[in-house]
Specification:
The chain is an alpha/beta fold and 240 residues long. It contains six helices and ten strands; from the N terminus they run E-E-H-E-E-H-E-H-H-E-E-E-E-H-H-E. The chain has a single domain, classed as P-loop containing nucleotide triphosphate hydrolases (Rossmann fold, 3-Layer(aba) Sandwich). It is found in: Chromosome, Centromere, Kinetochore; Cleavage furrow; Cytoplasm; Midbody.
Length: 240
């Protein structure tokens, strides 16, 4: 549970250890896609239940952080295939991992190359242009898409003393890389993007676009679901 300004948010993080590590990675994204759709199915069954709960527990996945290896060259075929398939069912946010292995110039060039490859391959990542509802959102998100994404981050769970303060960081022969220092990496930008500035929009795009797409298909297929009941008030308990 994260609390800020008296507001509590229940955050669920789902890890996928071993993804892409096999000799044959064909269709290795399917278990992840299956899990995402299972959460939509669970929510749908609660929603159409005649004796539905006042507050529907929401286990839907509202965003998927896809970590890209900092090769400095190009995206792997696996990267492209994963994002191509999963972007249809969940909000994909591409992230460059271990960004401290690249120089500033290499990082800038790699970001541009990743954005170009995603565009050439028709892969939409969050925030999608077509979902910007007003000019202010469009202007802000255009800047994020063109300048910040994919976010280049450095991760660590170790603390070090820097200028009299304890900070999360990675120790190298050249000094301490501070995880939350924007001059060192973009972790703080990613964190604020996900749980502050775009939190509500991530939930809305998930519900109004990805979930509704799944819901319409399931109901059209008439997959043995009971008749729909009329919903008079939206009141969902959500996890991000």
């Amino acid at each position: 549970v994260i609390e800020e300004g008296g507001v509590k948010m229940k955050l669920t993080v789902i890890d996928t250890p071993g993804f892409g590590d096999q000799i044959n990675n064909e269709n290795c994204w399917e278990p992840i896609e299956k899990y995402i759709n299972e959460q939509y199915e669970k929510f749908l069954k609660e929603e159409v239940n005649i004796a539905r709960k006042k507050r529907i527990p929401d286990t839907r996945v509202h965003c998927c952080l896809y970590f890209i290896s900092p090769t400095g060259h190009s995206l792997r075929p696996l990267d492209l295939e994963f994002m191509k398939h999963l972007s249809k069912v969940v909000n994909i946010i591409p992230v460059i991992a271990k960004a401290d292995t690249m120089t500033l110039e290499e990082k800038t060039e790699f970001k541009q190359r990743v954005r170009k490859e995603l565009e050439v391959n028709g892969i939409e990542f969050y925030p999608q242009k077509e979902f910007d509802e007003d000019l202010e959102d469009k202007t802000e998100n255009d800047k994020i898409r063109q300048e910040s994404m994919p976010f280049a981050v450095v991760g660590s769970d170790k603390e070090y003393q820097v200028n009299g303060k304890r900070v999360l960081g990675r120790k190298t022969p050249w000094g301490i890389i501070e995880v939350e220092n924007l001059t060192h990496c973009e972790f703080a930008l990613l964190r604020d993007f996900v749980i502050r500035t775009h939190l509500q929009d991530l939930k809305e795009v998930t519900h109004n676009i990805h979930y509704e797409t799944y819901r319409a298909k399931r109901l059209n297929d008439n997959g043995g679901l009971p008749p729909m009941t009329v919903e008079t008030e939206e009141n969902h308990e959500s996890n991000l």
